[in-house]
Amino acid sequence: MKLTYADVHYYFSAPTPRPLSHRFDKGSYLYLYKNKKDRGGRIEVANNVGKPEQDAFTGTLDPIHVRQSHKHPTLCTLTVDGNEARSHAASPPIQHPEHHWRLPNTDPRNEGKYLFRLHTLDIYFWTGADATKFMDAIERMLEPQQVEIIDRPSAPAPHEHLMSPVVQKLENVAIEDTNYQDGKT
Fold it and tell me: Taking the model in full, what pTM does it have?
């Protein structure tokens, strides 16, 4: 189990610049649980913890697609049913518990609160380290096609390749030549 804090923008339909139904919660508790036997797991998010308007949701990780861009390193976008949209049409749909991926929200006509199915979550982690830990765990728990990391920085080149051959040669002489070490050259 992993616990971290995040601000979460929930979309109940596909995200647009002016979504019809959405909500934003600050300081949510995000829990990630891994299956013990195989890949996968589930996520739980608790909002407004300790307040009268506290609520939460849970959902299995099977149907999701997660996207992160290193241009926005603390933002991870999770699309519910994003993996099923990418899977083969020949495979039967996965059955999920009815209560999964549902969160209370005021209906568009303001007639009360109902449980609406989530479409997309923009998770804003408080630190880059939290986002990295989350993505590392997600990559271990999900299939590769479920995780998309954009603009991943390439690994830095080893130190030797950063130096010119002349500097490398001088460095080797300083290390290996005993006359140089004794101050005779």
Answer: 0.76
